[in-house]
Amino acid sequence: MHVSYRDKERLELEVDYVVVGSGAGGSAAAIVLARAGWRVALIEAGAWLDPADYPWSMLGTMRDTFPDWGARVAVGNALMPIVQGEMVGGSCVINSAIVVRTPGDVLADWRDRFGLGDVFTERAMGDAQDAIEAELQVRPTAEAELGASGRTMLAACWRLGMEHHPTDRNVSSCQAVNYCLQGCRDCGKQTPNRTWIPELIDCGSVVLSCAPVDRVEIAKGVAVGVSGRFCEPRTKRRGGRFVVRARRGVLVAASAVCSA
Questions:
Q1: How far apart are CA 61 and CA 87, in angstroms?
Q2: Average pLDDT, the chain
Q3: Would the pTM of this model clear 0.85, i.e. be above it?
């Protein structure tokens, strides 16, 4: 079931697990839980866009899919733009489909600092990444998809004796039309809104779109659900309230920016 913006009507649901954020992390967690037989509510602040709805221009992309028109920045010695997608499927819909594995030293640091045990060893994560990459058809970029700049870069690396290889990407039939950042209208990218999320609905779970979460509900120190109000994506008009209760757990996967 997919539930989108509601103007005034209040929505209340109870599921086994609530997952906030429908990008790479949230959608992967949700489909694993759904395949295990649990009923999941996957909640996304942005709208559901089918490939035919993807904007043709970057201005349209910034309007329809970037939070705050892409005006979010990280502040430090310089301002660095934070490019994120706010839609069902998250940033996966508007990125370049590049897949890079988490380095082993980073996994070791997470394991040691946060006491994560054997779950975050390079071998354990590698097995999980193998399965995900096979499912999403991750493969090196083909010669016909490289473009002039890519071929020039590979040739330069070869001449300089530098390690080099084509980028790994989760695509099935890339047409090399360079609309990655506006969403792939040719359906070449294996994005969550085209792969895992439809399967999630088929498993009997529910997807809420246009539904920014305002609060994680806590009872006796345990997360028991979330609440918020629907938001119309173009006008930002606030709609009806939603409350989703979780019998077993709440997972927040709304990026490093929005999960804090």
A1: 11
A2: 90
A3: yes
